[in-house]
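This part of the workshop introduces the protein records we will be handling. As an example, a complete record with its sequence and its structure tokens follows.
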Amino acid sequence: MTTVGLIGLGAMGSGMAASLRRAGHSVQVFDVRREVAAAFAQDGGTAHDTLASLGAACDVIVSVVVNAAQTESVLFGDGTTPGCAASMKPGSVFVMCSTVDPNWSVALEARLEAMGLRYVDAPISGGAAKAASGQMTMMTAGKPEAYALAEPFLNAMAAKVYKLGDSAGAGSKVKIINQLLAGVHIAAAAEAMALGLREGVDAAALYEVITNSAGNSWMFENRMAHVLAADYTPLSAVDIFVKDLGIVLDMARASKFPLPLSSTAHQMFMQASTAGFAKEDDSAVIKIFPGIELPKGKA
């Protein structure tokens, strides 16, 4: 029986692990917060105290950490604590769900192949609620033998699993393009709401009209609801888009491809981050606009 492990029980990873368990899999988990892993395992599954232990126990490992640096640490250790790669059995599969530079993902596949391990480039989208319900999207690329082991688990975690290529990189490229649109749409939504507030338009009325008109977007509808509620709890933080739009621009810069809207949106998130809103919800990018009074939410 193929055994699955998941690393990183954050907003997305906890829902993904729950989806795997709901599908009938015995899920092995690791999180740097041991109490979080232990709490998950109380309802079924196994919590590991070390990455090396998890690596030895699993045929497929799904990594849901923030970025490439954390993925490197998860796999190869941090200089003091071993990662999972050294203890993984030959032929095991590492599924990488972070948003990263596609070239880094390509290089990672080669590094793992040299160790006798398989790899699926599998960034995710959809947010915490869809992760928890097994309804998120996965943008994947990998060799057929990697899919052969990993596919049942991918299907348990996501409503849509797109196969975009037979080697790493394609999944990450598509995710980066998705993040381009997500970041630009949030920035545009914030700018539009800010202009409405500056001009004295009732914020709730503006939201109602736009969400029923041609100017609406999923990001306007979702993120401006956070602004109306004055709730900047970080479901996805400002600094996520500082990182992700930075990767977008790096990818385009390498091929000398102009991205004027992405550049502007990136600067807006950078401004919000340095103004003290780095860890707030990404809708807090609206706070960079001067001379507006933001909604205060319900008392």
In short: Residues 184 and 265 are 6 Å apart (CA to CA).
